[in-house]
From TrEMBL:
Protein name, UniProt field: Hemerythrin-like, metal binding protein
Family according to the record: Belongs to the hemerythrin family.
Domain Hemerythrin-like, first and last residues per copy: 18-127
Annotated source species: Azotobacter vinelandii (strain DJ / ATCC BAA-1303)
InterPro entries, per database record: Haemerythrin_Fe_BS, Hemerythrin, Hemerythrin-like, Hemerythrin-like_sf, Hemerythrin_metal-bd
Length: 134
């Protein structure tokens, strides 16, 4: 699985979906993943919290687009968001409480794999739909 750094390096070829706002948000997401992964001990919790808050807005913005356009797979896409945001929230709380080890492992191992698949399937399908509606 590519790291967030590698995903940013090959963003245009592998992750750009053609929606300016969503692509911009996804670059920011990867930059915040990278910043958290590189954050040293005392800075980790704050960096992880910044990622969590950004992800919360990222998902809310996509969900607003889905609702406004009557997107048929809204429920499934939102459920996937809610699952990952719930995990991120729990790891964020642990990190803020000084227990960063599991949050770091999740950030390094699970979150990049989730983003890779989610961007290439659910977000990609959403962008195709939005383009057809325009
Ligand atoms: Fe997204
Ligand atoms: Fe999404």
């Amino acid at each position: 699985m590519p790291t967030p750094q590698e995903m940013l390096e090959r963003f245009q070829d592998s992750y750009a979906l053609g929606d300016e706002t969503i692509d911009h948000t996804h670059r920011e997401f990867l930059e915040l993943c990278l910043a958290a992964a590189n954050a040293g001990g005392p800075e980790f919790a704050g960096a992880f919290k910044a990622l969590f808050e950004h992800t919360s807005r990222h998902f809310a913005d996509e969900e607003a687009k889905m609702q406004a356009s009557g997107y048929p797979a809204f429920g499934e896409h939102r459920a996937n968001h809610q699952r990952i945001l719930g995990d991120m929230d729990r790891f964020c709380q642990r990190a803020v409480a000084g227990r960063a080890q599991m949050a770091r492992a999740w950030l390094n191992d699970s979150l990049p794999a989730w983003f890779d698949l989610h961007a290439k399937t659910m977000d990609s399908a959403l962008v195709v739909y939005l383009r057809q509606q325009a």
